[in-house]
Amino acid sequence: MDEQRIRGLMGLCVRAGQAVFGEDGCRKALVQGKCGLLLADGNISLNSRKRYEELCERTATPMRVLPPGLLEEATGKPGAAMAVKPGSFSEQMIRCL
């Protein structure tokens, strides 16, 4: 994993408005098919992680777990998960992870 490149892509993604945060927002994006990649922080609770994994499996959306704290460091937003909208950002992140 190229951590520096992922940080850069995550920051760009947020500035471009291609990211959704919060449990409700991420779940809604997954259900509506507006999520190309779900990034979960390594500190996420086991119950939340299991719920996201099940939802990602049902919607055939890739999910990656990041090192603890990386999500907040890269985006400046606290949270357990970030849904990346389908498109070039999600594709580039999948290749880097």
List the helices and strands and how they pair.
Layout: H1 3-15, E1 19-21, H2 23-31, E2 37-40, H3 46-59, E3 63-65, H4 70-75, E4 81-84, H5 88-96
Parallel strand pairs: 2-3
Antiparallel strand pairs: 1-4, 2-4
Helix pairs in contact: 1-5
Please, could you describe this protein's structure?
- It is a single chain.
- The chain is an alpha+beta fold and 97 residues long.
- It has a single domain (3-96), classed as Ribosomal protein L30/S12 (60s Ribosomal Protein L30, Chain: A, 2-Layer Sandwich), CATH 3.30.1330.
- Helix content is 53%, strand content 14%.
- It contains five helices and four strands, in the order αβαβαβαβα.
- The chain has helices at residues 3-15, 23-31, 46-59, 70-75, 88-96; strands at 19-21, 37-40, 63-65, 81-84.
- It has a four-stranded mixed beta sheet, with helices on both faces.
- α3 (46-59) links the parallel β2 (37-40) and β3 (63-65).
- α1 (3-15) runs antiparallel to α5.
- The longest helix has 14 residues, at 46-59.
Mean pLDDT: 95
Number of strands: 4
What sort of overall outline do the alpha carbons produce when their principal axes are compared?
globular
Low-confidence stretches: none
CATH class: Alpha Beta
Helix content: 40-55%
Secondary-structure element pattern, one letter each = HEHEHEHEH
- What's the end-to-end separation, in Å? 5 Å
Number of helices: 5
Reported by name, the CATH topology is 60s Ribosomal Protein L30, Chain: A
Give, in spatial order, the strands making up the sheet with the most strands: 1-4-2-3
Q: Provide the structure class.
A: alpha+beta
Proper CATH architecture: 2-Layer Sandwich
* CATH superfamily membership: Ribosomal protein L30/S12
Beta fraction: 5-15%
Radius of gyration, whole Å? 12 Å
What kind of assembly state do the chains in view correspond to? single chain
Largest sheet: 4 strands, mixed
The structural domain count equals 1
